[in-house]
Amino acid sequence: MQLHAGLAAALAVWWIGCAVALADACPPPRPLTFRVEGEIKRDVLGFTQGLEVHAGRLFESTGALAGDTRLTSIDPGTGRVTVLGNFDRTFFGEGLTILREQIFQLSWREHQVFVYDLKGRLLRKMRNPREGWGLANDGQSLIFTDGGDQLHYADPETFAIRRSVPIRYGATPLSAMNEIEYVDGKIYGNVFMTWSIVRVEPSTGCVDGVAELNALWARMSPQERAHINSDANFVLNGIAYDPVKNLFYLTGKNWKTIFTGRFVEAR
Prior knowledge:
By secondary structure, this protein is mainly β. 12% of the residues lie in helices and 48% in strands.
């Protein structure tokens, strides 16, 4: 049987497209387990949008829901929350990271990046051309998400976007990565409105690990579970890492508990 030349050409293009897609697809991610080693009970709740460890303290950005937008520090030993800045509802706080002894905080839709010293004093502002969601850094660039399916690398002095990397789960784009953390050359991120945390290889954008955190629910008190169930916005969100202790800190929006532990690859 002979194919019409046009059909043959179309099939050839289709086969080439399939081959390219298969070649570009990321390998299947490995399952990760989060082993809980401890819990911190904070004394004041916050709608956690950004979380980071620096010099043994937790720093947090909260959003203006069930409270105000705030910049806080949290004592990991006692859970005591200290407010470094309360911005009421002048903007909706999002991701936070610390680079070169300066705190960077994103706003959600106000297109602002705020830069503070470690005491919470405002040093300067920058403009973000996109929405602000998660924020991290690799020691050189600020890395942020905007609700879409890309990691954006920005200059810490100007916030000019240097490059963007598509995030993929297999061959499928993965959007809605919210709070993120850069750890040992990988990016860990909460997937918004889920119990999932993904680990991404930033050079390729491939998701190479996935952890399901449903087991945290069973560790909460009935009172905390009832509180979380009272509002659909009170979801898992908040991931920080202490390189000195090799310890992760995980929490959620308006949760009382911050869980500490380690990610391990399931066998």
